[in-house]
Design brief:
210 residues; Endonuclease Iii, domain 2; Endonuclease III, domain 1; 2 domains; 57% helix; elongated
């Protein structure tokens, strides 16, 4: 099967089964989304959603979080992965947003990448979810599913290379949703250790690169 045909089949399935989809992270503003995405690195969305309600009650915006010290933020995020580093990054990025961007999360990719704790995946999530742009965030789920389904070649061995392949073949209008399609498929069906192939609708044309 040619790669173009595989993309068509996969995307048609997701368009039909998940026409409206977004992040499972809970947030009330662009700043809170950024905080949640930073916390979600190497951590589950479920765990992040358990800690952010109290965190956001105490620090609802960049100004209040930037005025805090890392150890104050740590108390609220200590149950996530790498809490010390994340608490420090959250305070630092909050201060930059407050001092350099008038308290608003920048929508420029380069400006996002200059924020402490913000890598390309986080910046792309913000571009897609917060600002509605055609940005493809590649996390471990997207990376794994893209390879297993045969959407990308074996030579796409880094998140950036996978991102470049996906945006090459996925129509621009679908890109913001496609991140969530692949992520959720990896989270609930095409799981890392024991993929549920028997109940996967994509199994007939899966490349099975497991």
């Amino acid at each position: 099967m040619k790669r173009e045909e595989r993309y068509r089949l996969v995307l048609d399935h997701f368009r039909q089964e998940m026409p409206v989809v977004t992040t499972e992270l809970e947030f009330g503003s662009e700043f809170q989304l950024l905080v949640a995405v930073v916390l979600s690195a190497q951590c589950t969305d479920k765990r992040v959603n358990m800690v952010t309600p109290e965190l956001f009650r105490r620090f609802p915006d960049a100004a209040t979080m930037g005025a805090a010290e890392p150890d104050e933020v740590y108390k609220y995020v200590k149950s996530v992965s790498y809490p010390n580093a994340k608490a420090r990054h959250l305070v630092e990025l909050s201060r930059i947003i407050t001092e350099q961007h008038s308290g608003e999360v920048p929508n420029d990719m380069d400006a996002l990448l200059r924020l402490p704790g913000v890598g390309r995946k986080t910046a792309n999530v913000m571009q897609a979810v917060a600002f509605g742009r055609a940005a493809m965030a590649v996390d471990t789920h997207v990376f794994r599913v893209s390879h297993r389904l045969g959407l990308v070649p074996k030579t796409a061995n880094t998140p950036l290379k996978v991102e470049q392949q996906l945006v090459r073949y996925i129509p621009e209008a679908d890109i913001p949703q496609a991140h969530h399609w692949l992520l959720l498929h990896g989270r609930y069906v095409c799981t890392a250790r024991s993929p549920h192939c028997i109940r996967c609708a994509l199994e007939p044309y899966c490349a099975k690169k497991i």
